[in-house]
């Protein structure tokens, strides 16, 4: 689990990111989760936007994505979800203690 200090640090890093995934009418599926897990391995921190036509609410989408990709939910702000997962081979972010 992330501490409050670590979440604040990650939110500040995520502020400038552009969402690279969109969850729409189809909702969350296995293929999307695999792609997000791969992207997290490469980047560690991701923004995902939940479109207006998504049939599930953003909390459910965030829960499914974080559990499926084995990632930490940093925040949900508006229709944007921020996820973090420490990379095994491509570590870029050093979290505060």
UniProtKB/TrEMBL annotation:
Q: Which UniProt keywords apply?
A: RNA-binding
Quick one: signal sequence residues? none
Q: Which residues form the CRM domain?
A: 1-96
Matching Gene3D superfamilies: YhbY-like
Which InterPro entries does the entry mention?
RNA-binding_CRM, RNA-binding_domain, RNA-binding_YhbY, YhbY-like_sf
Q: Which PROSITE patterns does the UniProt entry name for this protein?
A: CRM
- The answer on whether this UniProt entry bears the keyword RNA-binding reads yes
PANTHER family this protein is in? RNA-BINDING PROTEIN YHBY
- Family annotation (NCBIfam families): RNA_bind_YhbY
Q: What is this protein called?
A: Ribosome assembly RNA-binding protein YhbY
């Amino acid at each position: 689990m992330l501490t409050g200090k670590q979440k604040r640090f990650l939110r500040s890093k995520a502020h400038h990111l552009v969402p690279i995934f969109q969850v729409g009418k189809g909702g969350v599926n296995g293929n999307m989760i695999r792609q997000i897990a791969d992207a997290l391995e490469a980047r560690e921190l991701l923004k995902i936007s939940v479109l207006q036509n998504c049939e599930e609410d953003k909390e459910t989408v965030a829960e499914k994505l974080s559990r499926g990709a084995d990632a930490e939910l940093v925040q949900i702000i508006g229709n944007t979800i921020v996820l973090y997962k420490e990379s095994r081979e491509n570590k870029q972010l050093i979290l505060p203690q």
